[in-house]
Write a structure and sequence with these properties.
Elements: H1 2-20, H2 23-41, E1 55-63, E2 66-74, H3 80-95, E3 104-111, H4 112-120
Antiparallel strand pairs: 1-2, 1-3
Length: 121
């Protein structure tokens, strides 16, 4: 019963995040999220042996060029690798400050595909 409840809560969290965003803020958030994501990649050192697929939802509030609030959320119950990677992602976001051209709430995904594509640039 416990794991069923936990899984349900993950889905409720994602659904409520999706409902809370409107189209305008989603667009601005996406652009700012790309800036934070691309800058974060410069400092990101993920653990070895990454799974074939992972998906983190990052919520960051950028204020005065730095991460004023940061949350790393899982779309599904996290693996041990994801539990290890999450604080490293958060660290990379704060280490790669300042984010001088943006402010406000940013939401973006960190997936294997995006990390691999971004690290090639």
């Amino acid at each position: 019963m416990h794991s069923l409840t936990k899984t349900f809560l993950y889905h409720v969290l994602i659904a409520s995040v999706a409902l809370a965003m409107n189209v305008t803020s989603a667009r601005a958030s996406e652009d700012g999220g790309n800036i934070v994501f691309n800058q974060m990649l410069k400092c990101l050192k993920l653990p070895a042996d990454a799974p074939s697929a992972y998906n983190f939802l990052i919520v960051a509030v950028i204020k005065d060029g730095s991460a004023d609030f940061l949350s790393v959320n899982f779309r599904t119950p996290p693996s041990e690798w994801e539990k290890t990677a999450a604080p490293l992602i958060a660290d990379a976001i704060t280490e790669c400050e300042p984010y001088s051209s943006i402010s406000g709430r940013m939401e973006f995904a960190v997936t294997r595909e995006l990390v691999e594509a971004g690290s090639k640039n």
